[in-house]
Every structure is written in structure tokens, then in C-alpha cells.
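Researcher: Structure prediction, please.
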Amino acid sequence: MSGHSKWSTIKHKKAALDSKRGKAWSKHARAITMAAKLGGGNPNDSPRLRLAIDKAKADNMPKDTIEKAIKKGTGELAGETYEDVLYEGYGPGGVAVMAKAMTDNRTRTGAEIKKVFERSNGNLGPQNCVSFQFQQKGVILIAGDKCSEDRIMEVALEAGADDVSSSGLVHEVTTAPDAFESVRAAIQSASIEIQSADLRMVSNVNISLEIETARKAMRLIDALEDHDDVDAVYSNIDLSDEVVAQLAKD
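Model: Predicted structure follows.
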């Protein structure tokens, strides 16, 4: 199981949601606008738009704000022009890190992301320096205290999931991209509460970190995730439950 996913679960529980809501809504709006621009304004015809809307709703983004973002993407309202950019590099302990961003100024964002890496004892690398280690997967996270592993395995694997892995903190369901929607729907239909569900890049080989290196690596990831233009951060970090628990106390 990805240590990054486990840490995301802890952060979700610890987060002061109200203080972060404005930034989250801004990121959701850009994601919706970009998805509508690329695939049209009907979520039934665009999996990317449907996913972006679902994530926005999970953060309680108002319906009219979502509709406005869609109209900006389809050209019904004026708005900025964004492009997808993937930044790749290495963090403390040699971990591979990728930051997926949406920006209206590639030069500005690239310079800022480079500084984030450098301030966190990492290095921004050239294109494809780490992405070859990752492949796209559907990842569904369920808090460990919400359902038993046996029940999740029964529902998810029957619906076509590739794997279910569990720790005391979180259950992680992985799927092929084309099975993601059906597996998520099956879990929801079984009345199992989902903490997060997303299409993300998953590493083929993970790196285990001791606590001090883990602190440094997660500071880099947290700083990248906090950047206004960054939509998602992926890594090959593998953290034990003990390390995650210690991070949660910091």
C-alpha cells in the first residue's frame, strides 16, 4: 500500500477544512474548466469532467460555482486559458515525485515548482525522469474503521477491482482506469463510505523511508500540494503504519 495514501488519510482527518476550502475550490474550478474545455460540458460524456465535479462536490463546492466553471470551459463565459503540465523530480531519500499542475503561465509555475523542490532538499528533473516508474490506476480509499477488509474485498473484487490492500489506517482499492467508475459505484451501492476516489499515477516500485527522511519527504509533498497551481502529487513513498502514526503526532 502506498505510504503517501496512508498519510493523505491522516491529513484528511487532521485538516482544518474551513481554512483550506477557498484554495481547494479554486483548484476544483480549474480542473472542471479544463475538463469541460477538453471534453465538453456534459459530465455523462466526459469521465474527466464527471470525476472533477465529484471531487468538487465532496469538498462542498456550491452548485452554481461548479456550473460557472463548466461554462468557462465551454466558452459560454470568459475565463483564463489553462494547460496541463507534469513536473518530475526527486525528493529526500531519492524518492520519485511527480506534481500534476494546471497553469495559465508555464514559465512562472515551473520556476516556482523548482524552488519548492530546492527548499525541500529535492531536485526538479527533466521530463520522463521518473514518470516511467508509474502507471495510471483508479485508487479508492476507505478509512480503516469504516468497514472490514473482507467486506471491501468481496464488493470491490466482484466489481472488477485489481487489488485491495489494507492496514489499520486505511483500505486501498486499486483498479484499471476503465474499471474505476464501476468499482466505485459498487462500493457506494454497498453503503460503504468512501474517503477519496481518483484516477492517479501509481508507482510500480515503492521506497520505504525511516521517520527522519519521511518527515523531509512529506514536507516536500505537502509544499507541492499547497501550491496554487498543483492539482495532484504522486510519489513512490512507502511508509509503515508506525511512521505514519509518528508523522501524525508531529
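Model: The two ends are 22 Å apart (CA to CA).
Researcher: Thanks, that helps.
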